[in-house]
Design a protein that fits this description.
Blueprint: H1 2-72, H2 91-97, E1 107-112, H3 127-133, E2 141-143, E3 150-152, E4 155-160, E5 166-171, H4 185-196, H5 203-208, E6 212-217, E7 222-227, H6 234-239, H7 246-249, H8 256-260, E8 272-274, E9 286-291, E10 305-310, H9 314-322, E11 328-330, H10 333-340, H11 343-346, E12 349-354, E13 361-366, E14 369-370, E15 373-374, H12 380-389, H13 392-398, E16 404-406, H14 429-438, E17 459-465, H15 469-484, E18 488-494, H16 496-505, E19 510-515, H17 524-527, H18 545-555, H19 560-577, E20 580-582, E21 584-586, E22 588-593, E23 601-602, E24 605-606
Parallel strand pairs: 1-10, 17-18, 17-19
Antiparallel strand pairs: 2-3, 4-5, 5-7, 6-7, 8-9, 9-10, 11-22, 12-22, 13-19, 13-20, 14-15, 16-21, 23-24
Length: 625
Amino acid sequence: MKNGNMGISRIAFWFGIGALGLLMLLLMIQIDRQWTRMNDITRLMQEQAQDIRSTRGVLRNLEQTVRTARFNTSEVDDRLSDTADRTDAFERARLATQQANYAQGDWLMLAFGSGLTTLTPLVSGDAYSSEVQQYVLESLLVRDPDTLEWSGLLAEDWQISDDGLTINFTLRRDISFSDGIAMTAKDVQFTFEFIMNEAIAAPRSRAYLSRIERVTALDNYHVEFVFKEPYFNSLQLAGGLTILPEHFYKRFLDEPRTFNESRGLLLGSGPYRLKDPENWTPDQGRVELERNPRYWGPVDGSFDRIVWRIIENDSARLTTFRNGDIDVYGARPREYQRLLDDPGISERSKHFEYMSPTAGYSFIAWNQQRGGKNSLFSDTRVRMAMSLLTDVERMLEEIFLGYGQPAVSPFMPGSSQHNPENQPFPRDMEKAKRLLAEAGFVDRNGDGILQAEDGTNFEFELTFFQDNDDTRRMVLFLRDLYARAGILMKPKPTEWSVMVEDLRQKNFDAITLGWTSGIEIDIYQMFHSSQSMENGDNFINYSNPELDATIDAARGEVDEEKRMKLWHKAERILVEDQPYTFLFRRNTLAFVDDRISNLEKTGLGLNLMSVPVEIYVPADRQRNR
């Protein structure tokens, strides 16, 4: 009887296991069906969203046609009716969506070489934060990457008065911020007034916008910019203003310190958004944007998410790219050819080598005052000597393997701003020593080191970003060059956040950095003496009244031929004064995961980071869903 009970128990046990397994199977089938249903609903919602965007586009075109017809049948000034000849900023993105293999989805995985201190607009000032913000914040106009002419983004039309002092923009009527609140011309007016408020820590932006007298919302869809005086770049200045939502940022007028010290206050109208627009912090170790489900544009972002990981070590970034965990790797010159020959890299990526027409430049900035006292570099002869000792050609060849070109000034070679008569300095040890002797620096005790008249050694620190291997090699190379002339240069490797603070406080002897560039750039912020205040971009306390006057005149000259002559004069002054030792512009050497489609070189460089987004991953190549 006992054995019989045991047999029954075993049967019951296995029956229970079988029933449980059947229930699990049925549950899995049910979950699978629900998941399939959710995918169908998601796809349907995406298609409906696309249909809505297409419908809005048709309505916009119809509205524009009506407006143009009204203009053409009335006695309107010719300059007010050129809208029909203008294209909007979405043309290239539209063409991308018409590709046979176009698909939305996947994540674009990127990496930054240093940590970000803040994503808050105006407070931030580095290229990394700008890269993130371009997906979230939008401007009235953007440059067409093919023609380099202006195209409408938030603005669908604009008119410039005959005297160039007034620009009127007509906004699109269906724009909303990522929280669903509609954008109006009042947000444009607010953005300008917010920036110009002295309590807001935005000295760079205030300096840039100082030529504008006022911005006025005429109604919900028309806004007027009035300039104090003529400015050569007035359309870029007004059209390039990135618009902040008044309802989100207005509260900080009453608590500006909270804004100035914030780390992650970022909300806009762009195709992507922070999931939490108020609480991003640097200790998260990454920045993650999600597609904006309320995006107003006719074409939204192709990627579900754009993610930047913070990977400060060059070798670690390469390993991460090799493992397929990031999609883009900016190669160092020494490894570029080796990676081209590496099957593990070449078989799964595309490579691009080019010099962007707007490539930025590297430099060594010589701080002319520190702690309220003149420094070694307050003497023009000393700065010139340092430039003559800096063998840029040899650095380019030995460290960067020729992937770049020497920089003469802030102005791009080949641009109208650059005077071809100004050429890079060849290394000249003897001339440099003569200039240093004239400035009072000679070897007074025979130890091979230059001393000032009071016997102190010619000695200084060169601050540089500690996690860039090429920069480290460059600084060590310079240390040896300067030592041969009797100058003691102490390399000072520094974390990025510390460098930013040192710049703010002007707490350095010399520092090596880079500026981004443009088609025609305004050098007011970097070299005008008025911008040497705290947080200003003239962080070397440089002052030259002749250059100030020349910059002021160039900025106010709308005649291009006359303006270029003024820029040539400004360039000559910079070449003679050497507030920076201008180093070089480097080629971009990039590897991009080959599943990324529609990559093209344009008049502005590779379209990898273009907004509106032009690149995508075909459905059969997607990894992250």
